[in-house]
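Write out this protein's structure.
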Amino acid sequence: MVAQRGGAPLASPVLWSGLIPLPADPYLRRVETGSDLTAGLVPGETVVLTQGEETASAPAAQGGTGKTQLAVDFARTLRNTQAVQVFVWVTATSREAIISGFAQAAGVVGAGDPDQGAEDAAARFVAWLTRTARPWALVIDDLADPADLEGFWPAGPAGQVVITTRLTGAALSSGAALSAAAARGLKIVPVGGFSRREALSYLGSRLTDDPDQRIEALDLGEDLDGLPLGLAQAAAVMNVTGLSCREYRVQLGERRKHMSGVSVEGVSAAVLATWSLAAECAHELAPSGLAWPALALAGMLDPHGIPGAALTSPAACGYVTGRASAAVAADQNLARAAVTNLARAGLVSIDPADPIRTVRMHSCVQAAVRAYLPPADLEQVLVAAADALVQTWPEPGSGVQARRGPAEAAQLEAACRDCAASLRAAEGTQDALWQPEAHPLLFRAGRSLEDGGLTDSAIAYWQSVAAGCARRLGPGHANAVAARDRLAVAYETAGRSGEAIEAFQNTLADRERNFGPEHPDTIATRIRLAHAYSSGGRPAEAMALYEQTVADSSQQLGLGHPVTMAARAGLAAAYQGAALNKESLTAHQMLATDAERLLGAVHPTTLAARDSLAAAFLASGQSKEAIEHYKGLLADYEAMGGADHPDAIAARANLASAFRRGGKLKDAIAQYKRVVEDRERTAGADHPDTITARANLAFAYRSAGQLREAIPVYEGTLADRERVQGPDHADTRTARCNLASAYQQVGRLSDAIAGYEHALADCERLLGPGDLETLTIRSSLAAAHFADGRLMEVVTVLRRTLDDSQRYLGPDHPMTQTVRDNLEAATGT
């Protein structure tokens, strides 16, 4: 469960995904011009909050009419009333952001598959929405282009969808990508500015120190056409300076005259004036002179949320303070004070409880900032923002990511990717990020797309970066070759093996020509080509190239060089993939021995080699050796990080599995019990990893024939899955089937049949009749009927299973053949 800020955690089984922005302070309920989404939205309906009627202060592309705040109020109401069981918030500024948000939600509801990419996970989530009976709600905020939702339009009889967009209703309805969704009864609701009464009420709620401040409040509301964004900036400045509405109106009029010849696309003259007064106000606040550089820096990054650490990084502190900085406490305090002053003046909002999307800025404020920066200043702030983002962005597998946990780490990755995309858009025709070579941010952003499973986006991104490197730096430049190398990796990840192999071959030729055949980068490219051969189903070529690479790297770089170690690990894996178990085990043993001798027993490379060796022993049936190696790994992990370190707990779980597979069930049960205790103590009783540990303990009991002990643990696991992860989660179905199988084993056949029937109904509803999981559960149900002597039911179920298997999987699929054999055995034909 992803808990949201601003209130007590929700009681299970409500599941939340995404980060909801804070409500405005104060938030004005719009009785006259707002849309009561909670009362007016019914299950199965989609409401799109569009830009209202265009006015002088609210051009169509500007926004600022309060659509997101209406969605926030909707979300908070659902949270407080617990009116839904699943809630998802997705910021939709790009197709990548939508897919990433949907993929995260798929993991939360159990619709995802860890072995699939983000696009597949997003599609499974959308399919889950159409089938689930659990009440759900989804907010898609700030949809930039309806085409970004193509193939992912969400709908379902149990759900409510709210979409906000700066597009007008007319523009939205005319979009080809919207036609299918519109046919399903889309409800378009224009949202304009406050009414006169609402504007007056809003200013009255903000200006509370002196009643005289509110003189001419109604006139100020009319000056700004009731636009919430402009009124919020005006009220913030008046609160800071003590100006009255009358005095502010004078300044506003003068500023508009002064800026009469200035225009910024998508920003009205009125908002440009309120922005200018707010920026001037913030800049004069102590510590004076720092607000503008802080505003410029924030204006380069994602307006929907900037990690707070990025704005207090060494690069950010150096830019804001104007001096070289190592982000010492004093400079960080100055940077924080500058951002706080921006918030006081209404230019940004700050959520101190959110480390991932801490600072938000309206897009038209960002547009104004970028428009006012001279080219030389723009180049300087672009580089500073890129440096700040790289300093903030944890590398995959780093301790920072591990401490955050998978969900928070994924959210931080998404936020950093969005900031990088915003930065690249701000660069425009500038080449600030390409001189004297490609900025590291360009490569970090691409790797994040790969790591996030966004394979199509990664391919398009690396094609763009490779072309940019070749155009700006030359095709033979190291950055250009590296970008083509990453493009090849993206092809391989996407399963486009032929293109990956061709790209790696070209990159290898480039590296051999530019660096020579013995350079570490050249050898590393050979390793990647060998891996592509292996994943592309060309094992003989993979092993031959790995063997050549190991020999060359060992001679040129030494046995302990990281490139050599990577080549040897790849060769051992290739042997194992080709079922050459003897050669694989020998290669794993030699690698682990050399790594320990050259790097030390607890070096990360050595630990990985030792873990792979233990797994290789286990795969070859040598459980005794595997157990000894897992014991050693466990002892070293505990010595390094303590018994409660995640790596130590994972090593203990591996040891327990090795004991079980080696037939030492008493030892396995003891270790599984310890893992359960460790998980409960460190992660909590309701954490999915803790529930998984209990499921593993139940399986160990069952493997030992201790079904009396196993069944209560299986029953508890199912109850926990339903309560914490929900009845539609894939883990819940697995727990139900495991319990049914245990019931069957002890002869409680009616309970087993009921469990399988329940799981089968869930599978058919959520996945469809032709899904492999559905067919597998139906086959298990047939086996339970057979054990109960109900041959007529057996034949009926197997005939249905065979029909569906042939229809959806084909007559030659292994599942189809298995079902056919079972049916023939049951009917005696």
